[in-house]
Design goal:
This protein is mainly beta and 152 residues long. The protein is built from one helix and nine strands. The protein has a five-stranded mixed beta sheet with strand order 3-9-8-5-6, with no helix packed on it. Strands 2-1-4-7 form a four-stranded mixed beta sheet, with no helix packed on it. It starts with a helix and ends in a 39-residue tail after the last strand.
């Protein structure tokens, strides 16, 4: 009977450790996106989770196209409103990946995950000196905004 009591106590300790705060937690890297592009421009991360945060003043959509011809989108954040954060994407494969702004493909971020090792030094923190551009007419008392018109 004493053996079973010790096994039950060991299981209770193990269950308590697994239920402790932070148990099973994982790392998430956050890349900022705005009208001015991505911050940081290159994210070196381990094979963990990635998300995007819109720090700009207009909605943004982040996409990644499949490397196979005709593959379409392999990631789509959907339209992120200012201040909104995307869902987390698991970056479990080794390699280099390009995520871009749906409306302006010239704005993109390169995400690197380790190829020949399980982990490497993470360099994916946004630069606090890089701020998104100010929206037009901020703080101007008499700012004239002209709507854009299309002509065929």
């Amino acid at each position: 009977m004493r053996r079973f009591g010790g096994a039950i106590a060991a299981l209770a300790v193990l269950a308590g450790l697994l239920a402790a705060p932070g148990a099973g937690a994982y790392t998430v890297q956050t890349i900022e996106v705005s009208e001015g592009g991505f911050n940081p421009a290159v994210c070196q991360m381990n094979r963990e989770y990635l998300r995007f945060k819109n720090v700009g003043s207009t909605p943004r959509r982040v996409v990644r196209y499949s490397p196979t011809p005709g593959g379409g989108l392999s990631f789509d954040s959907g339209w992120l409103q200012p201040g909104e954060t995307s869902r987390e994407e698991y970056m479990g494969f080794p390699g280099t990946f390009r995520f871009e702004d749906f409306e302006n493909p010239a704005n993109y971020v390169i995400v690197k995950t380790p190829v020949f090792s399980a982990t490497w030094p993470v360099e994916c923190s946004p630069d606090p000196a890089k701020r998104p551009p100010a929206p037009p007419c901020t703080g101007a008392a008499y700012c004239l905004r002209v709507p854009g018109l299309a002509a065929d």
